[in-house]
Design a protein that fits this description.
Keywords: Membrane, Transmembrane, Transmembrane helix. The protein is an all-alpha fold. It is built from 2 helices and no strands. The radius of gyration is 14 Å and the shape is elongated.
Length: about 60
């Protein structure tokens, strides 16, 4: 379907973990709760996408 480089997959995975950690560390701030939820959602999407890309590149 599409070819992916292992380094791209690792970068996407690291970016997802960073977004989730950013949202997790900022969860006690009283303002801007929607922005924190957006970072958590993006982190989950990037983490799942990174794992899928790593698996696809290793199976190939």
């Amino acid at each position: 379907m599409f070819n992916v480089n292992i380094f791209t997959a690792v970068i996407v995975l690291i970016m997802g973990i960073y977004d989730m950690s950013y949202a997790f560390n900022r969860r006690h701030q009283p303002n801007n709760k929607f922005g924190i939820a957006a970072f958590m959602i993006l982190g989950i999407i990037f983490t799942i996408g990174g794992i899928v890309m790593i698996v696809r590149s290793l199976i190939k």
